[in-house]
Amino acid sequence: MIYRPVPARLPVPAGLGRFSVLTTVFVCAACGLVYELELVALASYLIGDSVTQASVVLSVMVFAMGIGSLLAKRLRPRAALGFAAVEAGLALTGGLSAMALYACFAWYGQTRVPLVGFSLVIGILIGAEVPLLMTLIQRIRRQDAGGAVAELFAADYVGALVGGLAFPFLLLPMLGQLTGALLTGGVNAVAGGALVLWLFRRDLSNRSRWALVALNGLVLLLLAACSVLTGPFERAARHAVYGTDIRVAVQTPVQELVLTGGGRSGRPLSLFMDGRLRVSGGDELRYHEGLVHPAMDGPHRRVLILGGGDGLALREVLRYPGVTSVTVVELDKDVIRLARTDQDLAGLNHSSFRDPRVRVVVADAFGWLRGGHDDPDPYDVMVSDLPDPALTPSTKLYSQEFYGLAVRRLAPGGRLAIHAGPIGTRPRVFWTVDATVRSVGLDTVAYRVHGKDGDPSGGLDRTTARRSAGRDEAGDGRPKAWGFLLASREPVRLRLPADRPSLRTLTPVTLTAAGRAAGYGREPGLLPSTLMHPRYAD
User: Fold this and answer.
1) Grouped pLDDT means (10 residues each) for the chain, 538 residues
2) pLDDT at residue 478, rounded to an integer
3) What is the CATH classification number for the domain harbouring 292?
4) 419: annotated binding-site residue?
5) 348, 451: one domain
6) 286, 190: one domain
7) 337 and 194 in one domain?
8) Which residues are listed as membrane-spanning (predicted)?
9) How many whole angstroms from its chain centre is CA 312?
């Protein structure tokens, strides 16, 4: 049986009614894309590996949209009422999705199943919109199906463009994930409800009309209440994730920074970036002494540090009086600010950024190496203190192209020290970094430095400890070893410099053992990672 839309009894001229429907299509499309981007962004932050998470969210949503389109066929005889119900459900589900996912992560440590569930439900509801809107616009003025589809999809695509641009440039920086999603849900509910209750109100019985008013009012009231409670909710969720001794929590344009412990808490200072433990005061000395000092064996007048905005690698470099200049290239200026102004973090890095030999550049390391016109002289030592290569945003910083740029800035006889990720639990990632560095003409030597025994997480829960970046983790969540590479155009010898300062964790004997331990697990035959063919996986 073929359903033929009955002409609607409108309170306005047909032209204005048609414009109202297309405007609603525009608004709903913008809201739908915001929901998709919000799920992708939140999943990438909570789970990691943004390529995989984006693929899961988008593929599930597109599949679900097909299901929603089929299910909407049953609603076409009552298209106005069905569209209002779909928009109310979409506003509620999409608006609360960020808060629900964050709650699942904070209190249950599980986000993958809820992520798929929200993607499926939101996709079904978005998919049901188009058939119902097509029916509504056909009821206003009969026209050929091709013309109606063209108008409908034009409004839909333009709305998606606006939503796609509004999310990163307006909603996320100004309102954040939670409030942005809730506000989008409110706009979605108002747009869908207003269209039906105003333009198609004559299609509704009094009972249906009041039921829609109550439903949309309840949705808006719930979204508004959650919006008011976002502050206490975020604080409670952070305490569940990081513990109760959070001292600093700030969302920068680049990442979320959380500082715990230190001061009077009696716990080691811990710095988290996007939920991953980057600095633990309990064992950071082992990491930074292992990263920096083997590279200082040789000329070290000019030093470049890529990353290292916490100032801890810089602290070790500045212990050598022969160093005349150090350039630190850090993407997030707020990390630098925190390292300079926080009393405990500045105490840990010995206020290294106040040293007159230090020059700070706020820039992407790849882009800065590619330009580098502000400091063209080569460097004797380069220290790559960057996030784990298995994290998708860091892949380009461990690519053949990146190391090719680095080689151009390396002085004759210069050394490049690289934090290459955990060598024990993800050996393929580590040895792929090694293959990539060798592919640009550098000789390398690998070594692993063990973290100290005990709980480095400062009393944080095990879920949090396991999310530490750049660490070799065992089942108990404790970091076991960091993997490093020392590279140079000349044959590399793994040793400590004769003029080294007093070191607390590293000796010639332990360094030799670190090199020997790393060599046992070498994986030969791996191909280098490039921008067009990244070979790292989280």
Assistant:
1) 62 86 95 95 79 88 95 90 96 96 89 94 95 87 70 93 94 90 97 94 90 96 96 89 85 87 81 86 92 97 96 97 96 96 94 97 94 83 91 85 96 96 87 96 95 40 35 41 94 95 94 91 90 80
2) 40
3) 3.40.50.150
4) no
5) yes
6) no
7) no
8) 21-47, 53-72, 84-109, 115-137, 149-172, 178-200, 212-233
9) 24
The rounded distance, in Å, linking the Cα atoms of 159 and 177 is 20
Is 232 annotated in some ligand binding site? no
Please give the tally of structural domains in the chain.
2
For residues 227 and 316, membership in a common domain is answered with no
- Of 476, 492, 475, the C-alpha closest to 441 is 492
**255 carries a ligand binding annotation:** yes
d(CA 95, CA 80): 22
Q: How far is CA 202 from CA 18, 159, 198, 209, 447, in A?
A: 16, 28, 9, 9, 76
What are the structure tokens assigned to 343, written together?
A: 């009393």
**For residue 115, what are the domain limits?**
14-234
Judgement on whether residues 217 and 304 belong to the same structural domain of the protein:
no
Reported for 500-508, long-range contacts at CB under 8 A and 24+ positions apart, including other chains, are: 500/293, 500/296, 500/320, 501/319, 501/320, 503/289, 503/293, 504/285, 504/289, 505/285, 505/286, 505/289, 505/290, 506/286, 506/289, 506/290, 506/293, 506/449
Establish if 508 belongs to a structural domain: yes
Both 316 and 219 in one domain: the answer is no
Is 390 annotated in some ligand binding site? no
Whether 341 is covered by a domain: the verdict is yes
- Looking at the fold, whether 291 and 209 belong to one and the same domain comes out as no
Give the residue carrying structure tokens 């869908």: 192
Cβ atoms of 460 and 260 within 8 Å: the answer is: yes
Catalytic residue list: 385
Please give the Cα distance from 428 to 389 (Å, whole number).
11
